[in-house]
Write a structure and sequence with these properties.
single chain, alpha/beta, 7% strand, elongated, membrane, metal-binding
Length: 1068
C-alpha cells in the first residue's frame, strides 16, 4: 500500500488557492480565445454582458478542447527535460481504466503486510476471526470507494486527491485537518515500508549484515530494533536523495515494482496448487509440543548413530550441561521426545480444521502445537530464554491484529489521484477502483483460507520463520522457490517506500499552496520545476520518527488511524452532499446511497477505536486542533463546500422553527438593529455605538448594523459596497458578530423605515433598535433630523420594538477601557417590560462594566408608601436574581416654578416663530440660535454638559442671555428686510400664553432632571425610561425639548423604551 499525491505545476501562480479556475465555467481558455469569442454582430443585443456571461458556443468549445497536464511527478519530469529548450506540446491523456486506475490501485493496496504479517495474523486469529477481520476491513474500503467514486465523478478532481475532495466537499477546515492527518499517515506509511525493507534485508536476505548482535537470546529483540534504526535511517536518506534528484526515476521503476508484487502473488497461488499433490519439504522440529528454532542445530534428534556408536547431537548440547550422555539436562527436555513434522502439509492434508480457531499469545510464551502430547512441568517453573524455542515477541489480541492488518487494504485513492492522466476519468475511476478492491479483497480472503489450509499452525504463529530455517513463512509455500517471494517483497517494499516519499510532499505542497494553514506557506515552495524540496525535507524528518520506533507492528496502527480518519470524512462528504441535494451534486456514478456512506463512516469510526482507542483519540485531537487553527487563523475560502450547504439547511430549519411563535420570556434577548451614520468617505461617524453593541451583546444573539445612503441604487451602489466594507471592518475590530445592511433610498426617512421593516429574516428578526441621539438637531435648517428621529420612535412603537437611544455617545467607553469603580444607575419611572432591569445585567457581563455596581431608583408620588415600595422592589430584584442597591426617591407635589413657565414659553415661541415667519437663511439661523440660547436655564447649575460640543458658532454664555422680546426689537428686525409677516401675526405672537399641557410636561422634565442630576451625576451610565412622542404631531418639536431638559447635565445617558412585552421573569 502507498498513496501518491500530486500538485498542478502552475498552481504556484495563484497563491492562496490550489485551483483558481474552480469557479469558472471554462476548463481551459486563453486571453486570445476570449478576444475572438464575440466577433460578429449577430449577438449585438448581448454584447454589453458578454464579459461576464460567455456565449454557449464558447463554453462548448472550451469543454471540447479540454486538456490537462498529467498530474503528479510527470510535470516535474517534463520540466526537467524541457529546461533551456522549447517545450514539447502536451499530448492528450490516453490512459484507460486498466493502466490508469486498476494497476496503480493494485500496486498501492498490495504491500508489506501481505508478505510479512498476513500468515502470522491467520495463525494467531485463526481462519474464522482472520476472515472476519479481512471482510470488515475490505468492506470499509469498498464502501469508501463507492463514496469516493461519487465525489470523484461529480466534476474534475485536480491535484490533491482525497484532500481536494474533502476540502471542496466539507470546507477548508475539514479538508485541511484531514489532509494533514492523511499526510502524516502517508509519511508513516513510508516509514512502515522502510522498516519492512530492513526486516526482509536483515532477517531473510543478509542476516550477517547486522551491526548490533545479541549476546544471548533475551537481547535479540533489542539488537534487532537498533539494527532497524541504523539501517532504516540510511535507507531513508538514500530514498529521499533519489526523490530529490528526480522523481522520474521512481516513475520509471514503478512498473518493475508492480511486476514484483504480481509475480510474488502468482508464486503463492502456484505453490498452493503444487502443495495439494506435492508438498514442499520444510520439516518442523518439536520438543513435546513446543516448537524449536532451527538456528542452533541441524538434526532434529537428541541422539544420533555414528557407525556403531551413539552420540549426542547439537540439540542435546543446547539443553544439557555437556555433550556427554551423563550430563545434566533441562527437565522438560528429559521428559519429552523430539518429533519432526512437515511445516507445509499441503491443501489436501485436512489441516484447515486445526487452524479454524484463534491462538492468542502473551509476550514471551513458547509457540506450542495444539493436540500434541507432552509431559508438562509445574506452572511455577521458569522458561530459560536461551533455549532454542520459538517465543512470541508480543502480546496479541483481536483489536491489535486489526490495527496491524488494516494498512494492507489502504491505497484506494491511487486512481483518483491520476484523474488527469485518464482518457475518461468519470468512467475509469469508479470502475478501476472498485475492481481493484474486489480483486485485492478476493486475494486477501483466499489467502486467509489457503494459508490456514496449507501451513502448519506453529509455522503460521512463527512470525520470523525461525522454525523453518529462518525462511519467510509465506515464501515456504511459494513455487518454484522461497527466494521469489523474498526478492519480490524486498523490491515491492522499496518501491512502496519511494512512492510514499514521492506522494506525501506533494500533498503537503497542495495544502500549503491553498493557503489555508498560514504556517505551512513555506512548504509550498520548491525547485524551479515545482519539486517540493522543503516539503520533502519535512516528510523525511517525520518519517524518521517512525524509523526510530523501529517496530513495524507499532507503526502500522498509527498510520491506520490517519487513513481511517480520511476514509471516514470521504464517506461523510458523500453523505452530506447526498442528503443536502445541492444542485451541483450530479455525480455520473449512480450506484451510491447516503446509507452506504453513513455505514462506511460508522465502520471507519468503529475500526479506529477497535484498532487503538488511545491512538484514535490522539488522531482526533490532532485533527481537532488543526481544524480550530484553520478556523481562526486560516484564509477565508469559498469552495461551495457541503458544510456551507449544511449550514444553510440548518439555518433554514431553525428559521422555520422560529416562525412557530414568539420566544418565551426566558429566551428573550435583545436582537439589535444598530442604526449608524457614515460620512462622505463611507466611514462610521460614531464607532462607539458598535463598542456599546459589543458590550451589550457579548457575541450572543442577532446583531444587524444598518445604515442609509441617500440617492438611487444605480448611482450609489459602489458607495454602498464601500460603506458595507467599512462597517464590517469596524464590526470585526469591535468583535461584533452579526450582519451589515446598507440601504440606498431617496431620503433618509424612508431608508430607516425600510431597515426597520425588512431587517432580519423570518423569525430571526430584530426586536430592539439602537440609535444615537441627534445631538445637533436644533441646527438643521430644515429640521428634518428631529422629525426623522420622532418618526423612528413612532415606528418602533408601532412595530412593538424596543428602542435604545444613547446620548453623548462619544463619551461612552471603548472595549479596551475598564471602569475600576462606579455605578450603573437605573431610573425606573414606569414599567415597560423590564428592559431597564435586563440591560445593566447584560452590560455587567462585559469586562468594561464588570466592576460597576447597579443602583435602581424609583419615584414615589404623594400618596405612595415609599418604605413599602422599597421592600417590594428589593423582593422583586431578589426573585429576579439581580443584585442591586435600591432607593426610592420621593417627589412631592410642588408649585410650577417661573423658570418652568419661562422654559415652556420659550419653547412654544420658538416653534411658533418658525411656523409663522418666513425668514431668510441667515435670519433663521440667528433666530434659532437666539431662542436656543434663551432656552438654557438661568440658575447657577446650568453649565453645559461635560463633553458636549458647542452647538453653534459664537454661542454666548447662558447666564448672560435674557429673553428681551420687545415691540421695538421686532420692528427693527422687520425693517432689516422684506417680510410677509403681518402686524396681526406679530400681535398674536406677543399675546401667547403657554399651553398648560406643555407646562405640566416641562415641569415633570425639570423636576426629574433635578433629582437625577442630584443622585446620579457621578454615575458611569444612567438608564431611564423614554417618554413616548405626542399623539398630536403639532407638538413634535416640543417633545425633543422635553427630552433635552430631562437629560441635560448628565454624561452618559441611555433612554430606554420597551417593546410592549415582558422581557424578564422571576420564574425558572
Amino acid at each position: 500500500m502507498t498513496t501518491s499525491w500530486y500538485q498542478t505545476p502552475d498552481s504556484s501562480a495563484f497563491p492562496g488557492d490550489g485551483n483558481p479556475k474552480e469557479s469558472s465555467p471554462f476548463i481551459n481558455s486563453t486571453d486570445t480565445e476570449k478576444g475572438r469569442e464575440y466577433d460578429g454582430k449577430n449577438m449585438a443585443l448581448f454584447e454589453e454582458e458578454m464579459d461576464t456571461s460567455p456565449m454557449v458556443s464558447s463554453l462548448l468549445s472550451g469543454l471540447a478542447n479540454y486538456t490537462n497536464l498529467p498530474q503528479g511527478s510527470r510535470e516535474h519530469e517534463e520540466a526537467e527535460n524541457n529546461e533551456g529548450g522549447k517545450k514539447k506540446p502536451v499530448q492528450a491523456p490516453r490512459m484507460g481504466t486498466f493502466m490508469g486506475v486498476y494497476l496503480p490501485c493494485l500496486q498501492n493496496i498490495f504491500g508489506v503486510i501481505l508478505f510479512l504479517r498476513l500468515t502470522w495474523v491467520v495463525g494467531i486469529a485463526g481462519i474464522m476471526e482472520a476472515f472476519c477481520m479481512v471482510f470488515i476491513c475490505c468492506s470499509c474500503t469498498m464502501l469508501t470507494a463507492i463514496s469516493m467514486s461519487a465525489i470523484a465523478t461529480n466534476g474534475v478532481v485536480p491535484a490533491g486527491g482525497s484532500y481536494y475532495m474533502i476540502s471542496r466537499s466539507l470546507g477548508p477546515e475539514f479538508g485541511g485537518a484531514v489532509g494533514l492527518c492523511f499526510y502524516l499517515g502517508t509519511t508513516f506509511a513510508g516509514a512502515m515500508y522502510i522498516l519492512g525493507t530492513i526486516e526482509i534485508l536483515l532477517a531473510y536476505l543478509f542476516p550477517a549484515m547486522a551491526i548490533f548482535k545479541a549476546e544471548d537470546a533475551s537481547g535479540e529483540a533489542a539488537a534487532m530494533l537498533n539494527n532497524m534504526r541504523v539501517y532504516g535511517t540510511c535507507v531513508l536518506t538514500c530514498m529521499a536523495t533519489v526523490v530529490f534528484v528526480g522523481v522520474k526515476y521512481v516513475n520509471k521503476f514503478a512498473l518493475v515494482f508492480l511486476g514484483c508484487v504480481i509475480l510474488s502473488i502468482l508464486a503463492i497461488y502456484a505453490g498452493v496448487i503444487k502443495s495439494a499433490f506435492d508438498p514442499p519439504n520444510f520439516p518442523i522440529c518439536l520438543l513435546g509440543n513446543r516448537t524449536l528454532s532451527r538456528h542452533g542445530f541441524d538434526v532434529c534428534a537428541k541422539l544420533a548413530w555414528e557407525g556403531n556408536e551413539t552420540v549426542t547431537t547439537r540439540l542435546w548440547g543446547l539443553f544439557c550441561s555437556s555433550r556427554f550422555l551423563n550430563a545434566t539436562c533441562d527437565e522438560y527436555f528429559t521428559r519429552n521426545n523430539v518429533t519432526e513434522i512437515q511445516g507445509i502439509p499441503g491443501a489436501a492434508s485436512g489441516l484447515i480444521k486445526e487452524n479454524l480457531w484463534s491462538s492468542y499469545l502473551t509476550k514471551g510464551v513458547i509457540v506450542e502445537r495444539r493436540g500434541m502430547p507432552s509431559v508438562g512441568l509445574a506452572e511455577s517453573t521458569p522458561v530459560d530464554m536461551d533455549h532454542p524455542y520459538v517465543f512470541s515477541d508480543m502480546t496479541s489480541y483481536f483489536t491489535l491484529l486489526v490495527g496491524i492488518y488494516f494498512p494492507s487494504v489502504t491505497g484506494i485513492m491511487a486512481g483518483s489521484n491520476r484523474s488527469g492522466d485518464l482518457r475518461d476519468a468519470q468512467k475509469s475511476i469508479p470502475t478501476g477502483t472498485i475492481l481493484a478492491i474486489a480483486t485485492t479483497s478476493a486475494v486477501y480472503i483466499s489467502s486467509v483460507v489457503l494459508f490456514g489450509a496449507c501451513i502448519e499452525g506453529v509455522v503460521l504463529r512463527d512470525k520470523f520463520g525461525e522454525a523453518v530455517n529462518g525462511n519467510l513463512v509465506v515464501g515456504t509455500l511459494a513455487w518454484p522457490s522461497p527466494w521469489v517471494i523474498v526478492i519480490g517483497s524486498f523490491f515491492s517494499t522499496c518501491g512502496a517506500g519511494l512512492q510514499s516519499l514521492t506522494g506525501a510532499p506533494r500533498l503537503l505542497q497542495a495544502i500549503s499552496r491553498d493557503g489555508i494553514v498560514p504556517f505551512l506557506q513555506v512548504f509550498g515552495h520548491g525547485k524551479a520545476n515545482g519539486e517540493p524540496t522543503w516539503a520533502l525535507l519535512l516528510t523525511a524528518c517525520i518519517c524518521e520518527i517512525g524509523i526510530l520506533i523501529a517496530s513495524l507492528d507499532e507503526v502500522a496502527p498509527i498510520l491506520s488511524m490517519f487513513f481511517l480518519m480520511c476514509y471516514m470524512f470521504v464517506n461523510l462528504a458523500c453523505a452530506v452532499q447526498t442528503l443536502l441535494r445541492t444542485p451541483n451534486w450530479r455525480p455520473r456514478f449512480r450506484y451510491y446511497h447516503w446509507t452506504l456512506s453513513f455505514l462506511g463512516m460508522s465502520l471507519c469510526l468503529a475500526l479506529m477505536f477497535i484498532c487503538s482507542w488511545y491512538y484514535a483519540l490522539v488522531a482526533m485531537l490532532i485533527a481537532g486542533l488543526i481544524y480550530k487553527y484553520i478556523e481562526y487563523r486560516g484564509a477565508e475560502k469559498e469552495w461551495g463546500d457541503g458544510i456551507r450547504g449544511l449550514s444553510l439547511s440548518a439555518a433554514r430549519y431553525a428559521l422555520l422553527r422560529l416562525e412557530e411563535g414568539p420566544p418565551h420570556t426566558k429566551n428573550w434577548r435583545p436582537q439589535l438593529l444598530v442604526l449608524v451614520r457614515v460620512d462622505q468617505d463611507q466611514n462610521v461617524v460614531h464607532p462607539q455605538l458598535l463598542s456599546l453593541t459589543s458590550q451589550l451583546k457579548a457575541g450572543k444573539g442577532l446583531t444587524i448594523v444598518g445604515s442609509v445612503l441617500e440617492g438611487t441604487f444605480l448611482d450609489n451602489h459602489p458607495q454602498a459596497q464601500r460603506a458595507e466594507e467599512s462597517i464590517r471592518r469596524l464590526m470585526e475590530a469591535e468583535k461584533v458578530k452579526g450582519f451589515c445592511q446598507v440601504v440606498i433610498s431617496s431620503n433618509l426617512r424612508d431608508g430607516v423605515s425600510h431597515l426597520i421593516q425588512s431587517g432580519g429574516l423570518g423569525g430571526l428578526q430584530h426586536n430592539t433598535v439602537l440609535v444615537g441621539w441627534p445631538r445637533n438637531w436644533r441646527q438643521k435648517e430644515d429640521h428634518q433630523t428631529w422629525r426623522n428621529f420622532i418618526e423612528l420612535v413612532r415606528e418602533t412603537t408601532a412595530g412593538h420594538l424596543a428602542l435604545l437611544v444613547t446620548k453623548n455617545v462619544s463619551m461612552f467607553p471603548g472595549n479596551p477601557e475598564r471602569f475600576s469603580e462606579g455605578s450603573i444607575d437605573v431610573w425606573w419611572i414606569v414599567h415597560d417590560g423590564g428592559m431597564l432591569m435586563l440591560l445593566p445585567f447584560l452590560l455587567r457581563h462585559h469586562k468594561v462594566w464588570r466592576k460597576c455596581k447597579m443602583r435602581i431608583f424609583t419615584v414615589a408620588q404623594m400618596d405612595d408608601n415609599s418604605i413599602q415600595m422599597k421592600k417590594d422592589l428589593t423582593t422583586f430584584l431578589y426573585h429576579l436574581r439581580i443584585t442591586a442597591e435600591v432607593e426610592v426617591v420621593e417627589m412631592h407635589e410642588s408649585d410650577i416654578s417661573a423658570y418652568t413657565y419661562e422654559k415652556t414659553l420659550v419653547m412654544e415661541q420658538r416653534s411658533q416663530i418658525l411656523k409663522q415667519m418666513h425668514l431668510t437663511k441667515n435670519e433663521r439661523e440667528r433666530e434659532v440660535q437666539l431662542i436656543h440660547d434663551q432656552s438654557a436655564p438661568s440658575c447657577p447649575s446650568s453649565s453645559p454638559s461635560p463633553g458636549e460640543e458647542p452647538e453653534g458658532e459664537g454661542e454666548a454664555d447662558p447666564e448672560k442671555v435674557h429673553l428681551t422680546w420687545t415691540k421695538d426689537k421686532s420692528v427693527a428686525e422687520k425693517n432689516k428686510g422684506p417680510s410677509p409677516v403681518s402686524s396681526e401675526g406679530i400681535k398674536d405672537f406677543f399675546s401667547m400664553k403657554p399651553n398648560q399641557s406643555n407646562v405640566r410636561r416641562m415641569h415633570t422634565a425639570v423636576r426629574l432632571n433635578e433629582v437625577i442630576v442630584k443622585k446620579s451625576r457621578d454615575a458611569k451610565l444612567v438608564l431611564l425610561n423614554m417618554p413616548g412622542p405626542p399623539r398630536n404631531r403639532n407638538g413634535d418639536e416640543n417633545y425633543m425639548e422635553f427630552l433635552e431638559v430631562l437629560t441635560e447635565h448628565l454624561d452618559r445617558v441611555m433612554l430606554v423604551r420597551g417593546g410592549g412585552r415582558e422581557v424578564i421573569t422571576i420564574y425558572s
